Structure prediction request, 346 residues.
Amino acid sequence: MSVVSATRAPERKRLHGIDLHEAAASAVGARPAPEVWLVAAAGALVLPVWAVAALAPAAHIAGAAARREPAWHRWRPLAVAAAAGAAAASVATAVLGGASGDLRLALAAVGAGAATLLVGRIDRLRSTVGLASDLIAVSRGVTVGAVWLFDPWLVPFAILPAVLVSRSLSLPRLQAEARLDAKTGLYNSRHFAHALDQELSRARRHGRPLSLIMVDLDLLRRTNNTFGHIAGDAVLRGVGDIFRAQVRAHDLPARFGGEEFAILLPETTPDQAFELAERIRRAVAVRLFRSETSSQPLRATISLGVASFPRDASDATQLVHRADLAVYRAKVLGRNRVVDATDAPD
Prediction:
């Protein structure tokens, strides 16, 4: 068994090393995220201790979940929580005007949380699924409701920590989106070029091998012309899924644009890279791709070229060029095959 296959890790629940279920995992037994301390510090300035304690766990759960949501999903619940919580607290204040402070506060908190939860469910304002979203909604409502009872003018300051959390969570999401190709979910060419320079410097510094697989999807234009670009996009996405399923966690698959792809393989010899390329080629050849514009499943093939450092090139430009020549050679030989750079002279 080769090093590539022996160290292969399941990628079904990961996207380029990012766990798609990290929101759920981080909610149980994980270290508090930075936004929790942000909420605690800002909330302590205006909120009672029990309100800060209720809001911090919700921020911990929301911190992981909100990264997977559109920005407007994170802003609308804040407005709904403020409105519902303030309304419930206002009603409790009016109805229970003669009640003791503790009783009035307790009932107002229950009313604020229930109102926020109800509005959230009606409007489907959920930052995650099930109990976590309920906890977040109730915490927001209770906090706003409690502050409303103490002093309505402090409500904007009670909402401020949640706003700061939303803003702080948007940066990692935007950074992740800037590295990815929107159509396939693979890394884009800009991030690939940066990673290639870094990995090549590391390989040169430590005297380690590095390999590159360039990939070209065969006859994609024919698929687009016959079944439409929606079918072509389905094939592109499917090929991207195969790459993610086959490569290791520290490999880097990317889309160059059009039907061209690249896979960067740190710590990989030419023989290991060729074996992986052949395995990917076979996986694509037997895969059935489905699209709503075609009544029958679609098939596709790919042509691949393998080049390695230091055997074939000493810098990034030359490495990509040698792998490209190998892809061209594979096309000339009839497509749907892997060609090593040593078999594709300049």
User: Anything to note?
Assistant: The chain has a mean pLDDT of 73. The chain has two domains: 17-178, 189-343. The radius of gyration is 27 Å.
